């Protein structure tokens, strides 16, 4: 067993849309990844960013780990645009055009970008077992995707534990990420359940001092006795 580092990934969905750069600056150096939620108004009932934002982030922050979460349909049209933006990781949904799931993951991997698979709250882990060997990360949505500020669905942590067991049994190497309702009341429980990456939006950017909030939990997570087999 080895110590397991838990990563913090602020979600830019909750940042100041009129000044994303200032919002990122407010984080100091107390985060690990930047999480970018892409919504198309069809797969989820909201619109957010597009490939230009992913491209701009890469140009401004060439060494940053940019974690792009695609909540979109029409992967055949849109996925190539995000691959061209060169993020560090692209996550696609298991529920989106299932017949394209294997091909899309393979396409991302072939481009030299890390691959992720996301599950909405009603979707069981078994639905991705046939392609999970292609995943560098599995993202558990712990709220209904589309809007920030929701309460974490408690059963999502059971999925996290299931993914931990599956990874141990089959010796997979994927990270487990959770997104939705991560705040002062839930962040440590999510880490204890087995999450490797914690996405937090409103809890970070609605705080008077995002840098201090992140620093507080970075220290708490570093001091937590958590291990990965």
Describe this structure in words.
The protein has one domain: TIM Barrel (Alpha-Beta Barrel). It has 229 residues and is an alpha/beta fold. The strands form two sheets. The chain has an eight-stranded parallel β-sheet. Strands 1-10 form a two-stranded antiparallel ribbon. 33% of the residues lie in helices and 21% in strands. The mean pLDDT is 92. It contains eight helices and ten strands. The protein is globular.
Mean pLDDT across all amino acids: 92
Provide the CATH superfamily. Answer: Aldolase class I
Number of strands: 10
Number of helices: 8
In CATH, the topology is named TIM Barrel
User: Percentage of helical residues?
Assistant: 25-40%
Keywords:
229 residues; alpha/beta; TIM Barrel; eight-stranded parallel β-sheet; two-stranded antiparallel sheet; 8 helices; 10 strands
Give a topology summary.
Elements lengths: L1 E2 L3 E4 L9 H6 L7 E7 L11 H10 L4 E7 L3 H10 L4 E5 L7 H10 L3 E6 L17 E5 L14 H15 L4 E5 L7 H7 L3 E4 L1 H4 L4 H13 L4 E2 L1
Parallel strand pairs: 2-9, 3-4, 4-5, 5-6, 6-7, 7-8, 8-9
Antiparallel strand pairs: 1-10
In short:
The protein is 33% helix and 21% strand. By secondary structure, it is α/β, with parallel strands linked by helices.
């Amino acid at each position: 067993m080895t110590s397991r580092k838990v990563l913090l990934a602020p979600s830019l969905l909750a940042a100041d849309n009129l000044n994303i750069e200032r919002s990122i600056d407010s984080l100091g150096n107390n985060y690990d990844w930047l999480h970018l939620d892409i919504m198309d108004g069809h797969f989820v009932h909201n619109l957010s960013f597009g490939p230009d934002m992913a491209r701009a982030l890469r140009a401004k922050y060439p060494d940053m780990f940019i974690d792009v979460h695609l909540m979109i349909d029409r992967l055949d049209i849109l996925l190539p645009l995000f691959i061209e933006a060169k993020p560090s990781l692209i996550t696609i949904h298991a529920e989106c055009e299932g017949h394209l799931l294997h091909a899309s993951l393979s396409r991302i991997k072939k481009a030299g970008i890390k691959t992720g698979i996301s599950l909405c709250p009603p979707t069981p882990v078994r639905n991705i077992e046939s392609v999970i060997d292609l995943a560098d990360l599995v993202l558990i949505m712990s709220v209904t995707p589309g809007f920030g500020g929701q309460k974490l669905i408690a059963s999502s942590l059971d999925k996290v534990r299931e993914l931990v067991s599956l990874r141990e049994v089959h010796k997979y190497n994927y990270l487990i990420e959770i997104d939705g309702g991560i705040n002062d009341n839930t962040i440590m429980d999510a880490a204890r359940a087995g999450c490797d990456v914690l996405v937090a939006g409103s809890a970070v950017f609605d705080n008077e001092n995002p840098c201090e909030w992140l620093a507080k939990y970075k220290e708490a997570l570093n001091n937590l006795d958590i291990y990965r087999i």
